[in-house]
Amino acid sequence: MTMAHDDNGRIGPAASAAGCDADAVRWLRDGMARGRFPRRDALRMLAVLGAAGATGVAGKAAGAPTPVDTTLRIACHVMEMDDPSAVTSFEPSNIFRNCLEYLVRIDGDGILRPHLAESWAPSDDLRRWDISLRRDVFWSNGDRFEARDVAATIGHWLAPESVSVNKTLFADVRGVEIVHPFLVRIHLARPMLSLPDMLFAVTCPMLHRAFPGSGRPWTDAPVGTGPYRLDHFRVGEEARLIRRAGYWGATPPTRTLRFIDLGQTVSTQLTALSDGQVDILYRMDASDVPLASRLPGVRIVDCLSAQTCCFRMRTDTPPFDDWRVRRAVQLSADNAQMLRLGYADAGSVAANCHVAPFQPDYGPVAPVRRDVAQARHLLADAGHPDGIDLVLGVGNTQGPWEQNTAQVLQQNASDAGIRIRLDVLPPNEYLTIWSDIPFGLTFWSQRPLGMITLDLAYRSGSAWNETRLRNPDFDAALDAAMRSVDPVACRAAMGRAEAILQDSAAIVQPFWQKKFTAVSTRVRGYRLDPADCLDFTSAYLA
Question: Among residues 345, 380, 416, 503, which is most buried (max CB within 10 A)?
Fold first, then answer.
């Protein structure tokens, strides 16, 4: 294994030879033992590299609740999911993930674990990944899960006609090779250490090899490897899933899952929960907690999360193609006040860099201090001495807290002569234009790593790059982070990328949100996931 100095003079595995060979694994284990980096960082990196024993392998769970003939009812928006790889919201993924599964999984602890994949190993230059598959997995139609299913799924993501964000996320895939029925080899154009984490993106469930090119919605022929099968599906009404026989993993305790669409008014959902019509709410926000806490038979569940909202500006569209205008908007914002008044102070203040301090790859950056006088100066210098009029699109896609937060920004900006008019649209209408409007508020869920979010949202040419930011230095810093085995060097590269994003003034990202939901006091075994990947495989009614 080649050794190299990072930007801070530390010695670690060179990016060009950063594979999972014995030297790299020994170096990581030694660094953990000597305290060069935290145990959690080393375990995460060892898991990414596929080091044996770093994490457990999925299988039959010991001590799981005895299967019973019960039903869990979840209040959730039931949306179209014709192609699971092309969804743009988490709601449909939390329905189909009970039927379809992923090569890997990442639980609430943030540690990567095998799932349909049994193990994986990168080449020394991180441009080739060998993924070994479990041999005991069968599709619900009786076919064996094999490497050709993985190859067909990835080929579907990257097909010319694909509308999946995976087409951008995996744009560096140059080939998928079936080595044998249970070993697939992925060839990449550049080193990519984050590949295993990326395979847990919501749009990355494995699909049966017959699905691509079938021309049929997945809901018409819902073949999957998961513990449930789709029994009934109607957009805007209900999705019903039934526990199936022959599942390779632990049998879930609950026989039937019913996802019931009650609309997006949380107070209506809470009333249904209190009245015993549903058992679990998909989500609620901080403003709903007071009502939920007063209802009998209701328990509030919460967790820390890197979910957030961004007021993003299109850097290719006037007046936001002028950095001075964008910077003036950013300097006028009071992020702490937006958290306090927009989201009931339930979270932590963010630094306009879209990577949370508690994510494993975060590189520290200084916050942007509010400076109204400088904002006015920049506007005048940009030719707006009397201020400027802007229109901000808001869709309340996750609830009224979005509009509440936008109103605080509106008040903040007025101090600097920035007059913002809110254009509030119905959620479904807003979701059709969210990436196209010049100035809008977008909700972002947590990804396993900050680098995955930055790659999706801000890399030049990315399908979800709603800011249209194009910065080669940002892309280079992100590349450095994505190929670094050394957790310290990775965070240093991420810090550079975060600082470039912050300095671009493409976004005002005010806070990190605490996640909330409410469940019946009869519910057992259900945990809220910070990344919004809901897991019902251990949940049941007492």
Answer: 416
